[in-house]
């Protein structure tokens, strides 16, 4: 079985920026009835 290490996986700067943008705009809210709603801000 092949294991991935930080030396093998080096995402490009563009990929990292996309991940950061998604993480910045993604939100999760817990409603009063206990349900969880996820949404993305633009």
What does this structure look like?
The protein is an alpha+beta fold. The chain has 1 helix and 2 strands, in the order H-E-E. The protein has a two-stranded antiparallel sheet with strand order 1-2. A hairpin with a 5-residue loop joins strand 1 and strand 2 (36-40). The protein is elongated and about 45 Å long. The termini are far apart. The model has no long low-confidence stretch (mean pLDDT 81).
Output the keywords.
42 residues; 1 helix; single chain; alpha+beta
The amount of beta strand, in percent, is 15-25%
Q: What is the number of helices?
A: 1
- The low-confidence runs, each spanning 5 or more residues with pLDDT under 50, are none
Q: For the residues shown, what is the average pLDDT?
A: 81
The strands making up the biggest β-sheet line up spatially as 1-2
Taking all Cα atoms into account, the compactness measure Rg is: 16 Å
Biggest sheet details: 2 strands, antiparallel
Write the layout of secondary structure elements.
Elements: H1 13-25, E1 26-30, E2 36-40
Quick take:
By secondary structure, the protein is α+β, with helices and mostly antiparallel strands. The chain contains 1 helix and 2 strands; from the N terminus they run αββ. The mean pLDDT is 81.
């Amino acid at each position: 079985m092949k294991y991935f290490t930080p030396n093998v996986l080096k995402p490009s700067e563009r990929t990292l920026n996309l991940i950061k943008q998604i993480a910045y705009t993604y939100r999760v809210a817990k409603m009063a009835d206990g349900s969880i709603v996820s949404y993305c801000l633009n």
